[in-house]
Amino acid sequence: MKNFIITLIFIAALFFGSASYAQDGSNIMYSKVDQLDSSFMGTFVHLYFYNKSFGGRKIDTIIVEIEGYQQKFIEHRKDNGFNNWFQDQYLESLDKVDGELIRIVRSRLDKITNEFVFVTNYLDYYDENNKLVKEKSRELPASFPRAIIAEVLISAEHYKERVK
């Protein structure tokens, strides 16, 4: 019986000990807008507005002009501190346009001034079945006041590729 208990303790220790060596995954670098320099120009980013919204808390909305119309977008953060993937983050329109939702799936950082951040937004359109309407995908320029940007999520893979 004593050997059985020792074996059971050993197996439990081995199981729980091995879990502590599990690897997390992430391809995101996090930055404040004031920390960005010219080496980040041309890099894919996600801009998060007003409040830092880690783990789905403090989700904010932002109004973005899309071809002359003001569209309200909500932040979608899919990160939990362990697995954080750039391609899983996006902004999504609250209202449908011609029966479709718009997602800003990434932005390219084009220019930063003392007052504004200039980007090119990459938009995808999704139909009522949540299927991508590829022929509608497009790129549109936009600018945002620096003061409303709480955090910049940077594609680590894209950044490393650019600075090689």
Task: Give an overview of the whole structure.
It is a single chain. With 164 residues, the chain is an alpha+beta fold. The protein has one domain. The chain contains two helices and eleven strands. The strands form two sheets. Strands 2, 3, 4, 5, 7, 8, 9, 10 and 11 form a nine-stranded antiparallel beta sheet that branches. A hairpin with a 3-residue loop joins strand 8 and strand 9.
What features would you highlight for this structure?
164 residues, alpha+beta, 9-stranded antiparallel beta sheet, two-stranded parallel ribbon, 2 helices, 11 strands, 43% strand
Q: What is this structure, in a nutshell?
A:
With 164 residues, the protein is an alpha+beta fold.
Largest sheet: 9 strands, antiparallel
Average predicted confidence as pLDDT: 83
Going by helix content, strand content and strand pairing, the class is alpha+beta
Radius of gyration: 21 Å
Give the domain tally: 1
**Assembly state (oligomeric):** single chain
Give the ordered list of helices and strands.
HEEEEEEEEEEEH
Question: What proportion of the residues form beta strands (DSSP E)?
Answer: 35-45%
Please give the count of helices. Answer: 2
Approximate helicity band: 10-25%
The unreliable regions are 17-21
Task: Kindly report how far apart the N and C termini lie.
Answer: 61 Å
What is the overall silhouette?
A: globular
How many β-strands, per DSSP? Answer: 11
